[in-house]
């Protein structure tokens, strides 16, 4: 439901709009009123209405000036202008202030409803885009990391697909952009083996990496973790001078050794490559860096990691707050690597597997015990009984109570 402000200096017209229009039926739950633009602006600043219906010609402050203030201060507020005048200059003024509609008095009820519904649709579309953007912004670092890992894996076709994906992730991929990459490998100096770094240390190393590269005029840095390596990619103008990434790498290697006790080796790609070629360069550098005579194959390592993920979920499925980040932290991997590996090996997501396990455990409790539905839900990691029932029905096509009754009648 929406809030609507009516701005009209003629009392009878304003009262008629307030009293005789079925606002609630049209989706408006709260009505505000003002007799001129100045009064309306004060109310709008305080109440932030979703829609403003304003007359154009009013004393003190007219509707055009009011709309100008609203567009600047409350850009999400939809505006509908009313006027008894059809002169072209007023219409042009209304158009410049981005009004949703311009209606002539006396107001036709059907036209008013159409204008209000148009405003509501515009608001809903704006809110939907904002929600999508918020979700993207929260997940952007993870998505960028997954993109870089997939680039190494050669999962993207060049040109159109790559450019489109980069645009959605805020990664510059124009033809005049050039990149260089560095692959770092970390070893534990005390134990003489590859280091498995905790999420906290990884986060600090990542910050140190960005600091080192930004100090050498890298305009854009992407990073990605596998269990034993990090990749950084700097983006530079095609015609500009490439900064010396060797110096940046040396600074980072020194910081990693001094502050985190890691022995670090670095390998750089050719300077000034387009993004589609960086993936192949990274792939070769990572392959060379990880090759060992008796090392396990990537498929074996992936299978072991999937089993470790499943074991973790088996032990913690009753904890409703368990997230992929918790699993990643518990296993000392990044969540991006866990998600990609699990999906690649099993064909399903980690959350899907967790739900399957929880429903399987719930079915056993429903069939073998006298526990109530809410008790079963809590036992398998769902604090909300309604949500548990919704998930259960999604997987079993029956409600928990129907399943329990069916088992009892056999």
UniProtKB/TrEMBL annotation:
- Enumerate the UniProt keywords alphabetically: Cytoplasm, DNA-binding, Phosphoprotein, Transcription, Transcription regulation, Two-component regulatory system
Q: Which GO terms describe its cellular component?
A: cytoplasm
Tell me a GO biological process for this protein.
phosphorelay signal transduction system
Q: Which residues carry this modification: 4-aspartylphosphate?
A: 55
Which SUPFAM superfamilies did the record assign?
CheY-like, Homeodomain-like
Alphabetized InterPro entries for the sequence: CheY-like_superfamily (IPR011006), Homeodomain-like_sf (IPR009057), HptR (IPR051552), HTH_AraC (IPR018060), HTH_AraC-typ_CS (IPR018062), Sig_transdc_resp-reg_receiver (IPR001789), Tscrpt_reg_AraC-type_HTH (IPR020449)
* Domain HTH araC/xylS-type per the UniProt entry, residue ranges: 307-406
Q: Which GO terms describe its molecular function?
A: DNA-binding transcription factor activity; sequence-specific DNA binding
Tell me where in this chain the Response regulatory domain is found: 3-120
Q: Which PROSITE patterns match?
A: HTH_ARAC_FAMILY_1, HTH_ARAC_FAMILY_2, RESPONSE_REGULATORY
Please give the chief subcellular localization of this protein: cytoplasm
Q: Where in the cell is it found?
A: Cytoplasm
Name of this chain's protein: Response regulator
């Amino acid at each position: 439901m929406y809030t609507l402000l009516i701005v009209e200096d003629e009392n009878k017209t304003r009262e008629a709009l307030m009293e005789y229009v079925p606002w609630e039926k049209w989706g408006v739950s709260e009505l505000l009123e003002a007799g001129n633009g100045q009064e309306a602006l004060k109310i709008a600043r305080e109440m932030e209405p979703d829609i403003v219906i304003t007359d154009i010609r009013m004393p003190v402050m007219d509707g055009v000036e009011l709309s100008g203030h609203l567009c600047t201060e409350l850009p999400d507020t939809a505006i509908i202008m009313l006027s008894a005048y059809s002169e072209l200059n007023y219409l042009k003024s209304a158009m410049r202030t981005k009004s949703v509609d311009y209606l002539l008095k006396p107001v036709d009820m059907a036209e008013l409803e159409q204008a209000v519904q148009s405003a509501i649709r515009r608001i809903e579309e704006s809110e939907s885009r904002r929600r999508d953007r918020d979700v993207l912004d929260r997940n952007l670092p993870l998505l960028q990391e997954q993109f870089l890992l997939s680039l190494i894996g050669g999962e993207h076709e060049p040109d159109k697909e790559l450019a489109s994906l980069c645009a959605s992730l805020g990664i510059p991929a124009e033809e005049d952009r050039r990149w260089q990459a560095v692959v770092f490998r970390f070893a534990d100096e005390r134990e003489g083996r590859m280091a498995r770094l905790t999420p906290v240390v990884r986060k600090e190393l990542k910050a140190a990496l960005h600091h080192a590269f930004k100090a050498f005029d890298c305009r854009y840095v992407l990073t990605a973790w596998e269990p034993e390596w990090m990749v950084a990619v700097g983006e530079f103008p095609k015609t500009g001078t490439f900064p010396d990434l060797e110096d940046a790498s040396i600074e980072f290697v020194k910081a990693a050794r001094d502050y985190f006790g890691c022995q670090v080796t670095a390998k750089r790609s050719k300077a000034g490559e387009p993004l589609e070629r960086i993936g192949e360069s990274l792939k070769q550098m990572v392959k060379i860096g990880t090759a060992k005579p008796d090392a396990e194959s990537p498929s074996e390592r992936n299978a072991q990691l999937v089993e470790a993920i499943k074991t973790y979920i088996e032990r913690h499925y009753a904890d409703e707050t368990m997230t992929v980040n918790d699993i990643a932290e518990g296993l000392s991997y990044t969540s991006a690597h866990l998600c990609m590996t699990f999906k690649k090996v099993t064909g399903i997501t980690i959350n899907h597997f967790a739900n399957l396990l929880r429903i399987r455990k719930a079915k056993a409790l429903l069939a073998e015990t006298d526990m109530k539905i809410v008790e079963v839900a809590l036992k398998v990691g769902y604090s909300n009984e309604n949500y548990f029932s919704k998930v259960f029905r999604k997987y079993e096509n029956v409600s928990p109570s129907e399943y329990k009754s069916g088992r009892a009648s056999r």
